[in-house]
Design a protein that fits this description.
Mean pLDDT: 85
Strand content: under 5%
Number of strands: 0
Largest sheet: none
Order of helices and strands: HHHHHHHHHH
Low-confidence stretches: none
Radius of gyration: 18 Å
Number of helices: 10
Helix content: over 70%
Oligomer: single chain
């Protein structure tokens, strides 16, 4: 219930009373499980982080050696985001509220380090002078594609755009 409301109305605009009503339980019951609305959000965020790493399996713990491995991981990322659209709408909306994001800095750093390291090694192995800048560019492009496919799916049809993105990712050209 909380995920649905946070995704639809935003974290700041959703009250614990609304969550309880949506869940069909008393507000007091919510507080018997969570100390605050922030703790509810933290629980949802932790579950989302665990879910993406579960979907990626061991690929986040190894160095990619081929273009095919990189594409397979990106396909899993895109697919998981679309499967869990509600969570990722919430995730992206959190970035619009710096004070909310500040309280989730540790979780966001965990994602960044675990997701970026295999890609850094991959781009370094391909001979890029500055693999960190390359991964920042690729990350921004992937974020933009994902964000727009979630919030503007009629315009940003991810299935049409993914092949171009993968070609750019692995070959450096469209």
């Amino acid at each position: 219930a909380a995920l649905k409301l946070f995704a639809e109305h935003g974290y700041l605009s959703t009250s614990v009373s609304q969550i309880a009503k949506e869940a069909g339980v008393a507000k007091g019951l919510i507080y018997s499980y969570f100390e605050s609305k922030e703790e509810i959000l933290r629980s949802i965020t932790r579950e989302g982080i665990d879910d993406i790493f579960s979907a990626l399996g061991e690929s986040v713990n190894k160095t990619f050696v081929s273009d095919e491995e990189v594409i397979a991981v990106m396909v899993r990322i895109f697919d998981r985001v679309l499967e869990r659209a509600e969570f990722y709408k919430l995730y992206y909306s959190m970035f619009l509220h710096p004070h909310v994001m500040e309280s989730f800095r540790d979780e966001m750093e965990e994602i960044a380090v675990r997701m970026v390291t295999p890609f850094l090694d991959y781009f370094a192995s391909k001979g890029y002078e500055d693999p960190q800048s390359v991964i920042l560019f690729i990350h921004a492009a992937a974020d933009g594609l994902i964000f727009n496919s979630l919030f503007n799916p009629d315009i940003f049809q991810i299935e049409k755009i993914k092949p171009m993105f993968f070609k750019l990712l692995t070959k450096g050209t469209l």
